[in-house]
Design a protein that fits this description.
Layout: H1 2-15, H2 21-30, H3 51-68, H4 70-84, H5 91-102, H6 107-115, H7 165-170
Helix pairs in contact: 1-3, 2-3, 3-4, 3-6, 4-5
């Protein structure tokens, strides 16, 4: 949950005129210290709420979108949210679904970013080489024309309404 939360936070910042998603990732990467060398997929008890769990996981999502392309990545997010609304999920399940949506395994990328012992090297986005990544990504695309209300068709637009409050209380 922490990686997507930071990813969406960075995306939202971009949508309201703040740093782009790439700039936020670059700022985080440039300020990295040994705490970012903790594998966020298995941080251990001492680092469960450490910086890598939040920011390195968000960087993984940026790299995953770069690998998959924007439309398949958005399909992945939408599918993940629909399948796990109000329930539990695992990193392995997310990686498996990403591979299914992508049509090829993404484990090399997830192993590097989520389970590797060191923060991977940052790659700047090359928009000339990857035209499908031009424009705003993530939550930045989720806002409507007035930049305040979410589009109804975006996967994160109504994630906060995924589970009924009463059902959560009954569990």
């Amino acid at each position: 949950n922490e990686g997507p939360a930071v990813y969406f936070q960075w995306s939202w910042a971009e949508s309201i005129g703040g740093p782009t998603l790439e700039e936020s990732a670059r700022i985080s990467w440039d300020a990295a210290d040994e705490s970012m060398d903790v594998p966020p997929g298995d941080p251990g008890e001492d680092q469960m709420f450490g910086r890598a769990v939040y920011e390195r996981s968000a960087m993984f999502l940026i790299e995953l979108e770069r690998l998959m392309g924007t439309e398949p990545f958005e399909l992945l997010l939408r599918t993940w949210l629909e399948e796990h609304a109000g329930g539990n999920a695992t990193t392995a399940g997310f990686v498996a679904l990403a591979g299914d949506v992508h049509g090829a395994p993404v484990t090399a990328l997830s192993d590097l970013w989520l389970f590797g012992d060191e923060l991977p090297e940052r790659r700047d986005r090359d928009l000339a080489a990857a035209p499908h990544l031009r424009g705003r990504i993530g939550v930045a695309r989720a806002v409507g024309p007035d930049r305040r209300r979410p589009r109804d068709d975006h996967p994160v637009a109504h994630a906060h309404r995924a589970a009924e409050p009463v059902a959560l209380l009954e569990r």
